[in-house]
Design goal:
The structure holds two protein chains of two kinds. Chain A is α+β, with helices and mostly antiparallel strands. Chain A has a domain of 139 residues. In chain A, 66% of the residues lie in helices and 7% in strands. Chain A starts with a helix and ends in a 12-residue tail after the last helix. Chain B is mainly alpha-helical. Helices cover 73% and strands 0% of the residues of chain B. Chain B is built from six helices and no strands. In chain B, helix 2 packs antiparallel against helix 3. Chain B has a single domain, classed as de novo design (two linked rop proteins), CATH 1.20.1440.20. The chains are: A alpha+beta, B mainly alpha.
Chain lengths: 339, 188
């Protein structure tokens, strides 16, 4: 598997670079929003001489907050995601839970990675995700629905997919996106609310003479548009990176299990279930193995669906796996999948 | 000047190639240790298995005995090859036992047996997956050791191609066994 191992090193490098880029864009965007606020509130205004007056304390505050949030989301992102999904540490209290813990270990060995900590969400919708900042601090999380619905072979397929996200450092990028995009959404919400309740009036009142008042309004509108677009762009970014990752992780799952049927059967199984996950929000949807927001059942293809969904259509993933299963016979050393 | 740059580039390449060989050799060693851990765990589980199913599976006695004897042989094996042959025999026997256990409702009703069965199943899987991972890194190392230009460095610094962990070569004739089930297996 020489080709495979170089591939995943390349993926890891790309993910590290993507994360750094994401943080840079985030900090710039956040600071720009702070600057916009300063203009709208009149903290900073254009002077007749052409310079700026006032002190941009919101800009500086935004810069500091964005930096702190970036650091916090790097170290605490996984905990936040687990908290928001109401996940609990998985304990071997039932035979089925013991089996899941064992399969996590099996897949970690197959991927030659440290064993991730396992969590569970008490939700009947079958789904799973992985998070953490690197393989040594990784977490895989399954839903009770997944535990109930999957047999051992299917569970190997699903957890193999999650192990691929761990190995390729997808978990770092995706968790940072979840936490930081959440932050942008929060700020732009606040901005909208503030603007509606007289933000522009304040700008006009304090805006000095007529010229700078007009400039202030133009900047305010620009910032307004930026604030409206920021979460959309951020979301688009999250989606674009996520869909390709799902295909790659599906392929890597087959690499680990040497058994295309494992994940294939699991996805076919999940495709029949239509209940969305209760505690999944838009900000973390891209972390899951199948889109937790819509029932896996609605699966139309089309330009807008393609552009706006965090996951490739389940039917297309199943088709790809079927092609793999058809061409490549399972390796002779396929482990026992009984019990 | 140009010559100096070429020399530096060659030296840089040599260092990188050498280090990647060292890294792969360490990965092979580490992967092998992982297998040893799993094999040890299986050895420790076999007495529990014998104890748990003693009363139940009369007709699987042959397989059980074969597993226990193969286990004993791994301890006294004169070399790595015969030791691994014995381990492969255990793998084959375990696969059969786990499959047969499914047919015993009395066994499935025993909570401890169900627990043991999960432990044995995951141990077998972990052996299979560590072996797979080991063979993957051996393939990566051997490719480097054998292909140009890394083979030059490998030859000069004594990097050797590693052996694959082969699965049981077909179904070999099972050894004759006597039924001394109760005999406690020696500690590994």
């Amino acid at each position: 598997m020489t080709a495979q191992s170089t591939d995943f090193r390349a993926l890891e490098r790309k993910n590290r670079a993507d994360t750094a880029r994401l943080v840079a864009v985030f900090i710039v965007l956040f600071t720009a929003l702070g600057l916009g606020f300063d203009f709208v509130l009149g903290n900073v205004r254009l002077l007749d001489s052409g310079g700026f007056g006032g002190f941009p304390f919101l800009t500086i505050a935004a810069l500091i907050i964005a930096t702190i949030q970036s650091i916090a989301s790097y170290y605490g992102g996984a905990s936040l995601v687990l908290l928001s999904t109401h996940a609990q540490a998985l304990t071997p209290d039932t035979p089925k839970h013991q089996m899941v813990l064992d399969v996590v270990r099996e897949m970690a060995l197959a991927a030659r990675m440290p064993v991730p900590t396992a969590y569970i969400i008490a939700d009947p919708s079958p789904n799973a995700f992985a998070t953490g900042r690197d393989p040594a601090h990784s977490v895989v999380c399954v839903t009770q629905g997944l535990v109930d619905d999957m047999d051992r072979e299917e569970m190997q397929g699903v957890l193999g997919h999650e192990m691929a996200h761990v190995r390729d450092y997808d978990i770092r990028t995706m968790t940072m996106i979840a936490v930081l995009v959440g932050g942008v959404a929060l700020l732009s919400d606040f901005f909208f609310r503030y603007s509606l309740y007289g933000g522009f009036g304040a700008a006009r009142r304090r805006g000095g003479d007529r010229d700078s008042g007009e400039a202030g309004i133009i900047i305010a509108i620009a910032v307004f548009i930026l604030a409206a677009l920021a979460p959309i762009f951020a979301q688009l970014l999250a989606m674009a990176v996520s869909r390709e990752r799902e295909y790659l992780a599906d392929a890597a799952s087959v690499e680990f299990t040497r058994n295309p049927r494992a994940l294939l059967r699991a996805l076919e199984h999940i495709a029949q279930v239509e209940t969305p996950l209760a505690n999944a929000s838009r900000g973390i949807a891209h972390l899951f193995i199948v889109n937790p927001l819509q029932g896996a059942g609605d699966d139309e293809e089309g330009f807008f669906n393609n552009l706006l969904s965090t996951h490739p259509p389940l039917s297309r993933r199943i088709a790809r796996l079927r092609a793999l299963a058809g061409e490549a016979a399972p390796a002779p050393q396929t482990p026992v999948a009984g019990a | 000047m140009a010559g100096l740059i070429v020399l530096a580039a060659i030296a840089g390449y040599l260092i990188l190639a050498y280090n990647s060989l060292v890294s792969l050799r360490n990965q092979v060693d580490n992967a092998w240790r992982q297998i040893e851990v799993q094999l040890k765990r299986r050895h420790d589980l076999i007495p529990n298995l014998v104890e748990a199913v003693k009363g139940y599976m009369q007709f699987e006695r042959d397989t059980l005995t074969q597993v226990v004897e193969a286990r004993n042989r791994t301890v006294s094996a004169p070399n790595q090859a015969s030791r691994m042959a014995a381990e492969n025999e255990i793998t084959a026997g375990m696969g059969r036992l786990l499959a047969v256990m499914e047919n015993y409702p009395q066994l499935k009703a025993d909570e401890n047996v169900v627990k043991l069965q999960e432990e044995l199943t995951t141990t077998e899987n972990q052996i299979a997956f560590t072996r797979q991972a080991y063979n993957d890194v051996v393939l990566a190392l051997n490719t480097k050791v054998e292909t140009f230009p890394t083979n030059i460095i490998a030859n000069n610094f004594g990097f050797k191609a590693a052996d694959y962990f082969k699965a049981a070569p077909g179904d070999e004739a099972l050894p004759k066994v006597d039924l001394s089930l109760g005999a406690p297996a020696p500690k590994a």
